[in-house]
Amino acid sequence: MARAEDEQERSSTHVSTPDPVSQTIRELGHKAEPDIIELRRHFHRYPELSMEEFQTTEAIASALTDLGIPYTRPLKTGLVATLRGTAPDAYLPNGEPRRRILLRADIDALPVVERTGEPFASAYEGRMHACGHDCHIAMMLGCITILSQMTDALRGEVRIVFQPSEENGQGAQLMVDAGATDGVDGAFAMHIWSEVDAGTISCEAGPRMAHTDWFRIDIEGTSCHGAMPQRGADAVMAAASIVCALQTIVSRDLSPYDPAVVTVGEIAGGTARNVIAGSAHLSGTVRIYSDKTHDLMPGLIKRIAEHTAAALGAEAHLSDYTVANLKVENDPRASELCARAAAKIMGPAALAHYQGTMSGEDFSAFLAKVPGVLVFIGTRNPAIGATFAQHSCYYKIDESVLAPGAMLAAQYAIDFLASEK
């Protein structure tokens, strides 16, 4: 019995012993916190839209230069930085890194008119960082600040991708095509998230963000006098009916256990208030987790549109169906490594359960090349009004989560490079 108690005491002592690497990360992260917040506010005040992030790229480049971190610019906006480890086994005899981890931060903003009233609110009318990408930049620069002072703990190389045009779903693939994933063993990204409580993170394995598709349907009817509807085929009526009928895909064609969203966000038609419309169009988005349903969806939309229009004497054509992003699916090993890293930095209580979202993310383009993990950094805090959804003109975040996010990225990079393939 005494031996068992001694072993239990030793085990307890071992668990409570601070990890010197994690302790250093926390010390450096707390020291960098004011700068991280200041950077976030700067990027928030000067948002730039997809593929127009010129000032943003220059500001990131300036910060990297101050830290002595080399970088390249494979695209007209965004950049790729390299942080070389100095641990004894960081590089193989042939000069290749023992392992290489890719850290991604997206940098573009949205065409949203900001109404937060923040003193650092957008200086540009009609543009806003309403999805947290300003936070992603600041956290990643904070992570680099930490790691640049801990290169002796890096058993390999860190490649940091500051990626443009996530909101348009183009930037990640452009970076992949430019070679960003060449020679990479894994990928990591963070996303500030309004549905996860501040002070917690979610990095569960499996699907986390949905397949994202766009579609357009064109409707052709027969125009006539508005007082003589029997003489024509109303394209606007057909369009409205198609909008309603499309919802039966989710409610009747799919299993209740197969989550999907079909949203029509735009509808237009007609030429005058007293003319039965001869043409109309509608466009929308589809979000799905299931690969099988993803393959079926264009045919389901086409069937609904054509038959609904035909019942009203009109014709409908699915004129465009574009796969924008594939789903983001976290690798189990990467998720487990991330959970352990989060526990080291924030404590086990910081690990939250979040079911995932039907929103899309082009980080999937990186995950199509290498296994990895996308982490939701919780920022919901009703006490300060940080409750509005992503893309809201009132979107706010709890800035106290930024430094821990930077620390988590640093811990993950160190742990990943130290792990075996």
3D structure, described in words:
This protein is of the alpha+beta class. The protein has two domains: 17-208 and 327-418, 3-Layer(aba) Sandwich (Aminopeptidase), CATH 3.40.630.10; 211-325, Alpha-Beta Plaits. Helix content is 36%, strand content 23%. The protein is built from ten helices and 15 strands. A seven-stranded mixed sheet has the order 1-2-4-3-5-15-6, with helices on both faces. A four-stranded antiparallel sheet has the order 10-12-8-13, covered by helices on one side. Strands 7-14 form a two-stranded antiparallel sheet. Strand 3 (100-106), helix 4 (133-147) and strand 4 (157-163) form a beta-alpha-beta unit. Helix 6 (235-253) packs antiparallel against helix 7. The two termini are 41 Å apart.
Write a brief caption for the model:
The protein is of the alpha+beta class and 421 residues long. It is built from ten helices and 15 strands.
